[in-house]
Amino acid sequence: MNKQEKDVLLSLAAEPYVNQRVLSERCGCSLGMINRSLRSLMDAGFVDDGIRLTRKAAEEMTAHRPKNAIILAAGFGMRMVPINLNTPKGLLEVHGERLIDRLIRQLHEVNIRDITVVVGYMKDAFEYLIDEFGVQLIYNEEYATRNNIKSLDLAVRLISNTYILPADLWCEKNPFAERELYSWYMVSDQPDAESEVRINRKGELVHTDAGETGSRMIGIAYLTGPEAGLLRERISLLCADPKNDDAFWEKALFEDGRMTVCARIAPGDEIVEINTYEQLRELDADSNHLQSDALDVICGVFGCRHEEITGIQVLKKGMTNRSFLFSVRGEKFIMRIPGEGTDQLIDRHHEAKVYQTIAGHGLCDDVVYINPENGFKITKYLEGIRVADPDSVPDLKRCMDKLREFHEMKLTVDHSFDIFGQIEFYESLWKGAPSVYRDYEKTKEQVLSLKSYIDWHVQERVLTHIDAVPDNFLFCKGADGEEELQLTDWEYSGMQDPHVDLAMFSIYSLYDKWQIDRLIDLYFEGDCPKETRIKIYCYVAACGLLWSNWCEYKRSLGVEFGEYSLRQYRFAKDYYRYATEEMKDVVSSK
Question: Does residue 545 share a domain with residue 439?
Fold first, then answer.
């Protein structure tokens, strides 16, 4: 049977045959197609002369009948900022009902009781589902570092006549059925410029080309027959390759540019994937999950109502914080919300003092609002900005000129940033757990031995940015139309040797040695004393260990930084060696 014939068979199983016109309307195809399909089904023995299902049809229905469901609910849901992140997306309430509860009840309505939920972020919050609905929970401990392809891999053995769905959907009508005859993937009838699939003339789901608008992917699928077996194999193969860690599970459905399953088209207004605050607000303006400390702050600062805050758009999650763009009365702003564990890492009172100190010096736009108690910060949104390109020499020259200009202001605050003290502090946050690096103690001892050389060669301490990395140098259009340069994100800033900023820029950019030397030459305009260069190498080693320890703490919170973390540890080891070798050369030359 082809897809059209199976759809006709499913329609006949749902309601008795009246006439071909009624059947045509129910199946959404032409009378000619209905006529051909019925003849084919009769010839194959699936319907009799009275257009009634035969025993053979009943056996076919039984063979492909839905047996179970897998719900993927492990993710952070970071795009839901500014909603307070103490609720996984699947547990958000719409019209007084949790999203995942509604999905489970809809599965129960079609007699699907074998339900497995793959959890990760705040896994314990889903425990009630076991008693209330009799579901099975599987824990994805890698939810912070791998996408939902890993979640499905943990339940891959269960895929056989199976519904697969995300937990963050609100379905007005039940998308599931007691009878299915073929594998499908659900897309909306609404276009989506960001979708990677479209329906071609043959009714197949194929990859979109560059610039092509596709169909919104809903995420619900049904797998049966050979497609279920193929998906099991492909999920396991893809998960075995680390390059697929960021992949969505749907990648396993593609082969030669098209999905191996049919398209199931759903009305876009009946199924909503809730990814953002505004989507939730549009669906249920009275949802108790719309309460947000961040939005309350915005209302207080601008004297507006919640509904006047529009255009909410989550920006790329930073290494320390989460930020979102919003508009109030036609003006755009950015609000920063401190990330996980930030209260342990940053003194927000110190940060507020820094912003007071740099105000009016042309280093960055003055903040609109900052709260030294919780770290919430609001700044104006700069149109058409770009960050510095660490591989562009013209950009690097302008960045180093700006950095030198800042350092020469010799601004002061009453707190400092102690690199070696912070190394010990971040290590203390591990709460006695050993480092993931087996030679950590030796590396730490080597780095600490550089402190005496650094202290001997520090000439002055001024307000230093500390986090002067390429992403914090912002190029933007000035009032005269010329490109201006600002330096943003001052939360780690304090009194320190200004040359620390060169080391920080270098290690964040994952520079090789020649690139670090090039940066030093640009800052010093080709006239850096040998002893100062060695001191900067020492800072590279110390700062590498500092951020390696920081990454190890963040890892304990479920936040991974991959190559960045490993490279920071390598900076600690490699630049201890470079610095000590250069010290020996200086001694021998004397």
Answer: yes
State whether 395 and 484 are in the same domain. yes
SS3 305: coil
Give the integer Cα–Cα distance in Å for 553 and 430: 6
In contact, 376 and 337? CB cutoff 8 Å: yes
Secondary structure of residue 433 in the 3-state scheme: coil
For 503-527, write each residue's pLDDT tens digit: 999 999 999 999 999 999 999 999 9
Q: Assign residue 17 the CATH number of its domain.
A: 1.10.10.10
Write out the H or E segment, with its range, that includes residue 219. strand 214-223
Cα separation of 376 and 292, whole Å? 12
CA–CA distance, 123 with 135 (Å, rounded to integer):
14
Overall domain count for the chain: 4
Structural domain harbouring 264: 68-273
**Which of 444, 419, 418 shows the shortest CA–CA distance to 576?**
444
SS3 418: coil
Predicted confidence (pLDDT) per residue in 336-386, tens digit: 887 655 666 678 899 999 999 999 998 988 789 999 888 899 998 888 889
Same domain, 426 and 549: yes
Q: Within this chain, do residues 127 and 190 fall inside the same structural domain, yes or no?
A: yes
Instruction: Please provide the distance, in angstroms rounded to a whole number, between the alpha carbons at the two ends of the chain.
Output: 89
CB atoms within 10 A of CB 475: 18
User: Is the previous residue joined to 82 through a cis bond, with omega within 30 degrees of 0?
Assistant: yes
